[in-house]
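Before relying on records like the one below, remember that each one covers exactly one chain. Contacts with other chains, cofactors or solvent are not represented anywhere in the record.
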Amino acid sequence: MSTNSVAEKNAAPIDREERMKQARNVMIIGLVLNFILAAAKISISIIYGSISLQADGLDSALDIGTTILGFVAIKIADRPADSDHQFGHQKFENFFSLGIALLLVTSSGIIGYQAVTRLIVQTDLGFSKVNVIIASASILLKGVLVWINIKVGKKIDSPSLIANGLNFRTDVMTSIVVLISVTIGTIKINGKTLFWLDPAIAFLISIVIIFTAIKITRESAHVLLDKSADKEIIDEIIRISRKQEGVKGVGALRSRTIGEKNIFVDLDIFLDPELTIEQGHDIACIVDEAIKKELPVKYLQIHIEPYHPEEGVKCISEEEEEL
């Protein structure tokens, strides 16, 4: 892992008040834009009979819910540790991300059902400039939401904002597809329009939404199931520990992650068995400080082991690194 990469991940945690302020601003922007898009898309789709535009409008309406859920998740996750949750409440955001995934699956099912129904009915569409304008505006506005949610989400280390950003990124792609649908779908060939294109595009949208839900679920599950830190982080912890004076080697190392800036680690280090308890404690404190200074480790539990190379103690030592 490069020094710059480590420095970026180990950026100082943002102030809690500032974190909530930025999350609130993102929520307000998301609510306003999604309400405008949902109302416009659904109204126009009903008037002109575009199922794909209606599907896109329904998705924008659901985005209002996911935006609110995301903010509530951040607010709960930002609570300090208490006697019942001594490691904090950060995982609440991942639970809410699963809620977002569930909403997406529901939306996908509704859209898919309507698409199949439209294919069976085989209703032709009439060309409408309004459809084109709405779809184009959606691409632009959703693009803004993607940029804001992912940028701020990474800045304040918020899984729910990033999940919403991924959701909005899918919306951009589906709106592009809708734009193609409401234009090419009305072209007549031998006196017949490509009526099937509109519901086919809507069905494609439902599949894309499912894949987004799977991605969000997988990433949230990693955190909820205590996924280990990246190999680069683990290697850095070992390297930093070994180079501290008095450390003979590194033994068992267990880690779990809650976002990029919250890593919990249990670490065994081997020291000279002739050292006093106080001397061993001082070395452990030095290792703790060195690791937290360079890496995004929030909690570090260090266990001291006596180093007896003649007994075949299994550890990662400085000599092994040189080999």
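The chain has two domains: 3-224, 231-322.
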